[in-house]
Amino acid sequence: MSKIIVDQIQKLTGGVAAFNIPTVDGTAGQYMKTDGSANLGWSSMTNPNVASIPGIPVPEGVGIIGSIMSRSDRANTYSTGEWTSSGPWTTYYNYDIGSNNNAIQFMNMALGDGMQDSGTSENMFGNDSEHQFGRTLQYSNGTRLGHSRNFFHYDNSTSDAGITFRLLPIRNTTSAAISVNIYAYVSNYWGSGYEGGCLAVFAPNAGLYSAVTAVTGTNLASVSSTNANQNSLSGSYSIPANTTVIVGLSSTDWYYTSYQFRDTNYFSQLDTTFTNPGIICDMRMLQTLHTARFTSPMTYAGGLSGLMPGIWKQVALQYGDR
Amino acid sequence: MSRITADQIQKSGGAVFSLPVASGANNQYIQTDGQGNLSFNQPFMSDPAVPYLISPEGFGNIGSTISHTDRQNIYSTGEWTSGGPWTTWTAYQSHTDNNAIQFMAMALGDGFTTSGTSQYMQGADAENELPRRVQFTNGNRLGFSRDTTKWDNVQDYAGHSMRVMPLRNTTSSPVTVNLYAYTSQYWSSGYEGCQLFYFTPNTSTYSTVTGVTGTSIATSTSNARQVNLTGSATIPANTTILVCLLSTDWYTTTYRYKDTNFFYNLNTTCTTANGVICDMRMLSALARGKFTGLSYAGAFSGLFATIWTSCATIYGDR
């Protein structure tokens, strides 16, 4: 391989400036710039003050933590619109969202109406109106993020009673992997064998958003046959350097008594999860999860690994790569 | 012309950089991957002239605002029948003068923009209350189909959902788009119904709009959980129109209703080829703006212009 070693480069014909080549490489995603005196260096094109990026409602790196949350009443809907074990695409197990087919359906329901390709009937999934949450954005005021709430299901179905989906994007801003502890509580009612709750992590194969080509799903903890209004789920995950992972949390409505159910779905001990100052909630990813339209990457075909990179790539498009 | 050919370049004693094989596109910049590999890439170029947008524009994102009223399905104070917030309101004709004003006032707020003397708010069952909420699609559909329980169990004037989606033609020629929607509907008093319709300004530049025209695309007075409403709208060059969808809650059985209100086939409506996008400046304005000019007086044409001029004030003219 040929290589030229010089301190400066200059255009031969009419070149006025002799450009000083950088001595060291920049970090991934940086661009070459000049200081106006022909000294070339590296710089990020994006403004480090994330608050100035259109569409980002809150600044990043000041301790704010948010998630998006969606819901389906599953079989607790009157007539058309309800569903049980057969999910939007194929059989769906709510206690195993880190696995291939479950992961795709979990993510599509968390990000939309659960039927991204809409099919031929154009039937939407039904929800009781008081439970209608489509990509709702929630922020934590302390060390917990989510809810535990009573509600009323007129259908009174104890099988496939209803589920809540939550997504929390966590970014490791340092140049070394960091292991974080994650804690959550979820409700669960085991009726048909397809319910349960799960805490899982979706991790990309590259740090740079635009370079992600595969995603791995990992279940950290799950609950299946245990019925309770609050089941503790926890685990740890090592987030690679300069990488954003998406933490998923699924829960099933707990049947309490006739018509009365409990929906618990929240992260706890966030002060522990985010104790390392290099770990932050990724606001670019959060806003993308809240507003973006993932038309092509999230079709119901193939494994999650090849489909989910579209989420990271969309962040790069909408809010800048890093 | 002299030329030195090499695979890599290095400042003496410094890092080694691998040169790009091919030229980038116009206005691309040299980027490093942090491993010394140089390539051309499109830098992230946010538009600093438009801060505070609800979502960046031009990436295929589509959103709408959605509001709901339970109309007569309210306990005691706060309910209303044919006599709307201002005057008689015929839901399935919401593109016409008095109906249009009341539709938009309810879609954007509480239905009483001038608040009246009693200060009573329009009522809604708590679980159905959707005051000017913003929804984004993840695919080709935007909206919902949801069960509601109404203790009042009234079939007349059962309730309505009102959706507004701003579409912008970014090209210099008119574009005709196809629109698809489903709504619930229950016909009882003669003042319900469902409708797909749109409002077009008389000029393209937000700040110069002085008049607005309402056009009905499809309407129905049949009873069904899902009524299919489709048709087309022609959007003038460089212009933003407001596509509106009105539905009536469908009575299913005692206490139980279905509220269906969504657009579908949005991949057909907004395509890369036709240059039609969701106008994020207008969506942000519809979601957050305070349109003081939308008072209950006169015809809607002049009143609605305030929506476009307010958009210019809040998010910049174009």
Radius of gyration of chain B: 24 Å
* Main beta-sheet annotation of chain A: 7 strands, antiparallel
What is the share of helical residues of chain A? 10-25%
Task: Give the assembly state of these chains.
Answer: heterodimer
Order of helices and strands of chain B: EEEEEHEEEEEEEEEEHEHH
- Structurally, the number of domains of chain B stands at 2
Per DSSP E runs of 2 or more residues, the count of β-strands of chain A stands at 18
Number of helical stretches of at least 4 residues of chain B: 4
In DSSP terms (H or I, runs of 4 or more residues), the helix count of chain A works out at 5
Task: Give an account of the 3D structure.
The complex is a heterodimer of chains A (322) and B (318). Chain A has 322 residues and is mainly beta. Helices cover 12% and strands 35% of the residues of chain A. Chain A folds into 2 domains: 1-45, no CATH class; 51-319, no CATH class. In chain A, helix 3 (283-291) packs across helix 5. The model of chain A is unreliable at 46-51 (pLDDT under 50). In chain B, strands 5, 6, 8, 10, 11, 13 and 16 form a 7-stranded antiparallel sheet that branches. In chain B, strands 7, 9, 12, 14 and 15 form a 5-stranded antiparallel sheet that branches. Chain B contains 4 helices and 16 strands. The radius of gyration of chain B is 24 Å and the shape is elongated. Chain B folds into 2 domains: 8-41, no CATH class; 63-315, no CATH class. With 318 residues, chain B is mostly beta strands. The model of chain B has no long low-confidence stretch (mean pLDDT 86). In chain B, strand 1 (8-10) and strand 2 form a beta hairpin. Chains A and B meet through strand 1, strand 7, helix 3 and helix 5 of A and strand 1, strand 3, strand 7 and strand 15 of B. Strand 1 (3-5) of chain A pairs parallel with strand 1 (8-10) of chain B.
Short description:
Chain A is mainly beta and 322 residues long. Chain A has helices at residues 100-111, 270-273, 283-291, 304-307, 309-319; strands at 3-5, 8-9, 19-20, 31-34, 40-43, 66-72, 126-128, 136-139, 145-152, 163-172, 178-188, 197-204, 215-223, 228-239, 243-252, 254-257, 260-268, 279-281.
